[in-house]
Structures are given as C-alpha cells and as structure tokens.
Write a structure and sequence with these properties.
By secondary structure, the protein is an alpha/beta fold. It is built from 18 helices and 23 strands. It starts with a strand and ends with a helix. It comes from Shewanella colwelliana (Alteromonas colwelliana).
C-alpha cells in the first residue's frame, strides 16, 4: 500500500489539488511507496500568503517564547529519532545507521536554535558623541523559503527552518520530491511542538513550485542545497528578483595523504569517506592525492574498499545502500565507463553489482581508479556515487596546486603527522572547510558550513552565526536625550523623579 504525501499549508495537512502526480520509489527495488499531488501555482501562492500573514504576529512573539518552541521541538525530534530514521532509510535507501546520523545532525541545529536569544543580540556604544548613544537591534526579514535535496532529507531542512523561524521569520519549505516523507514528519512534529498556524508551510512539487518561490515578491530570502546547475539557476533567478540567496552547490573534495601519516588510519578513513552513503554527499572524499611514498598504500586501500558490501537499509552488515534513482545509477555508470575510456586504471569496478533479492535496485558497488588526471571526466565532474579517484604528487606543494586549481571549494582533508605540513596546508588551501586527520570536516552548528568557490553562491552560509545574519536585518539607532528636558520635567512634575526610579 502506498502512502499519499501531504502538503502543510495554512496550518492544515492536505493532499493538494494538483493534477500532476509524482511517484516516490524505494531505491532498493524501485517499487512505488508513496505518491505526491504536485502543488499548483495557486497552492504555493496561498502558502506564501499564509506565511506572510503569520509573520505579522510571529515577529512580535518574545524571543524567549520562540526559543521554548525550539526546546519542545528538539525534544520531540529526539523522542522520535529512530522513527524518523526508519522513514528516511526506506525512502532514500540509506542504511539505518547512516539514516540515524542524518537525523542527529539536523537535531544539533535545532538545539542550536534554542539559543536564539544570545544569537540575535545587538550591540551598544554609549557616548559615541557628546550625550549621544548608538545601539542596534536584530530583526527578522519576513517570509523565507528553503529548497532542499534528496541526499539529506532530515539534516538539510533542519539546517534551515528552525533557525529562520527562531529569528522571527516564517518559512516555506520545498523538499526534494524524491524523498518527501521525512520532511513531512519533521513538519508534523514542529506543529506538535506548538508552532502557531502559518509559521511553517510545506509544499511538494517540481520546478513550477520552485519558480514561484524564486519570483514571488513576498519571499525575502532563499536557502538552497543541490547540484551545480540548479544552484546557479537558483542564485541567479533569486537575486535577479532582488532576494537574498544562499545556494550550496556541487563539490569535488580532495584528501591529501602525506607519507608520514598513520597508514591504517588513512585507509580506514578513506574507505568510509569515499564510498560511504553511496558517495551521495557533498562532503564525500572523491579524490585522494598521495604524496611521495604514500602511493605505495594504494593497493592496500583497494583491498579495504573491496571488502565494502552495499545492502538494504535494515541489513546490519551493509556499509551503504543504493543510489537514489535509476537515472542516478545510469549517470554514475556512464562516468565509470568514461574513466576507463579516458585512460584511468580501474582497480575496482562496481558497475555490475547487485544485491540478492533486490536485483531491480539502483546498486553501484565500490569503485576505485588510479592514474587519474585533471583532464578526465571522472575528475572534473561530481560523480555522486561510490567512486574514489586516486592521484599522485611528488610534493605537498604540488598537491596544494592540484586542489586549488579545482573550481570547487567545499571540503578537503590532509592526513599527516607533521604539524608544519598541516599548518602549511590549512593556510594555503583555497577550500572553505579543512580537516586535519579528519576525513569529512563538517562543522558543528555553532560554527557555519562554509563552502567556497563553485561550491557556494552567496555571502552568508548555513547555520551558526552566519545563518542568523542571513535570516535577519540589523537596525541601528542613534539617540540623544537632553538633560534640560529632565530639569523641565522635574520643575513641572515633582513626582517624576520617583516615577523614573
């Protein structure tokens, strides 16, 4: 029996009136598990209007009360953690452990939103001039929107709407149509946490819904995570319509391996960071650059990756699940074939991998290439599959040149026992998030997710202090009060002094 996914508009869950039906499939067997009636233009506009109306009252709610909603929400998320992870695993194909990680990283941002009072504090300077004081307030923008991808259907929506709403905004969420049941459950729990009607809206659909959000005059800010092409479209269209936009796009993350590193730690970390989650994460390590004698470890790395076994979500021995769709699988297999044709050596080929009993699933086995060059398709394109490309360099300086020449700048790591090498790398590398003996350096929510270059379009990044700045405006007040007015008041109203006390 399939589930009918619901929108959440104006405080009501509804199947919607759209005639276009979208099927949601289980990536492990491609059977339909849910359907969506794609939102109509009128339904998206109604959601925006409802959010605009709710903003007039929500922005006046004391910050302590907004924080209490977030406290209740993070409590509910924790109480339903495994339930949300089960839904997520079934519609994305992720293993249960991976799904739980997805949910927990989102909960951490909801926890951070509970601290909103201190995050939105303004600044004050007394006597900027004689008897003149200046101080600032942080105020919300209005209606904000989020457009989120398939690969983290819990974490990435939770990057967005809790902080935006805690800041005093209202929010319209448009998640990926490929796994919409997880976001629906997140919204159900937000309603249960006591969020007022209209503060959060949930719409499901395709480009039609997205374009309404990008062009509607009442949307003040857009948050997006997804592919490069769509990210560029979101950023250009949104800014052309005079909106704030933060658009997180593609990546090609490099790991530099120095010969003085701990070999076993390098191998263990590279296995999970490269093929874990089927490579479907923007922080996956998809390129390993071996410096000097470290190249001798490549055969052992190949043997370790060869032991990785994909499987269905509730298989406790499975390391990762299928890719999200047949189209995604076809794209990964095409790039693997191109890698072979262009001269890379395929040490491990997962093109023909299947799981017994789930032969119709979107399976790609762990794959590894060596002799990869920067001109090859498998290097230049984000594969978004369980594929690791290995390169070699003679020096750290050469490795840094390779990484910095990439058009992307999302994440990178270096494995080394040398503090000097680590310092040189972190200082000279042109990438926003750097790990030192850490394979996937995603910051915790009190920092911000800071991709650079072609991995991000915008100015302020996700979560942390930068997200608070993105979702708010600063109002600065300069005030002068004349002492002569106090004397005048005292002369005409002797009890004023008592009242002032």
């Amino acid at each position: 029996m399939t589930t009918q996914v619901k929108h959440y508009i104006d405080g009501q869950f509804t199947l919607g009136e759209g005639q276009q039906q979208i099927s949601v499939t289980n990536p492990a067997n491609n059977e339909v598990i849910a359907t969506i009636n794609a939102a109509t233009v009128n339904e998206v506009e109604f959601a925006i209007a409802s959010a605009k109306k709710a903003f007039t009252t929500w922005k006046e709610v004391p910050v302590s009360e907004r924080a209490r909603v977030m406290f209740r929400y993070q409590h509910l998320l924790k109480a339903h953690h495994d339930e949300i992870a089960t839904i997520l695993a079934q519609e994305t194909g992720k293993t249960f452990e991976d799904a739980k990680g997805d949910v927990w990283r989102g909960i951490e941002v909801a926890e951070h939103a509970c601290n909103i009072a201190s995050l939105i504090m303004g600044e004050t300077v007394e006597n900027v001039a004689r008897s003149i004081d200046t101080y600032s307030y942080t105020q919300p923008l209005g209606v904000c929107a989020g457009i989120t991808p398939f690969n983290f259907p819990a974490m990435i929506p939770l990057w967005m709407f809790p902080l935006a709403i805690a800041c005093g905004n209202t929010f319209v969420l448009k998640p990926s149509e490929q796994d919409p049941m997880t976001p629906q459950r997140l919204v159900e729990l937000f309603e249960e946490a006591g969020a007022p009607k209209g503060v959060l809206q949930l719409i499901h659909g395709d480009k039609t819904a997205v374009d309404v959000l990008l062009t509607h005059e009442d949307i003040k800010a857009i948050s997006f995570v997804g592919s490069v092409g769509v990210g560029q479209y979101i950023y250009k269209t949104g800014t052309d319509n005079l909106k704030r936009v933060q658009a997180f796009a593609g990546a090609k993350n490099h790991c530099v391996v120095m010969p003085d590193a701990n070999k076993q730690q390098v191998i263990n970390n590279l296995v999970g960071a490269s093929v874990g989650a089927a490579g479907q994460r923007c922080m996956a390590l998809s390129v390993a650059v071996f410096v000097g004698e470290a190249k001798k470890w490549i055969p052992e790395l190949r043997d370790a990756i060869a032991k990785v076994r994909p499987g269905v979500w509730d298989d406790k021995e499975a390391a990762y699940g299928p890719v999200i769709s047949p189209a995604a699988k076809e794209r990964v297999l095409k790039l693997i074939a191109q890698g072979k044709e262009e001269g890379a050596e395929c040490l491990l080929d997962g093109s023909d991998f299947t799981v017994e009993g789930f032969e119709k699933g979107n399976w790609v086995g762990p794959t590894m290439f060596t002799n990869v060059t920067t001109e090859m398709s498998i290097y230049k394109e984000e594969i978004f599959g369980p594929v690791l490309c290995c390169m070699e360099s003679e020096t750290l300086e050469e490795a840094i040149e390779i990484v910095n020449a990439s058009p992307y700048g999302n994440g990178t790591s270096i494995f080394t026992a040398s503090g000097a090498a680590a310092r040189k790398y972190q200082h000279n590398i042109e990438v926003g998030q750097v790990g030192i003996n850490v394979p996937i350096p995603v910051p915790l929510p009190f920092f911000s997710f800071t991709g650079w270059k072609g991995s991000f379009y915008g100015d302020q990044h996700a979560y942390g202090k930068q997200a608070v700045r993105f979702y708010t405006e600063t109002k600065t007040i300069t005030a002068r009060w004349f002492e002569s007015d106090i004397s005048e008041a005292e002369h005409h109203a002797p009890n004023m002094t008592i009242a002032l006390k």
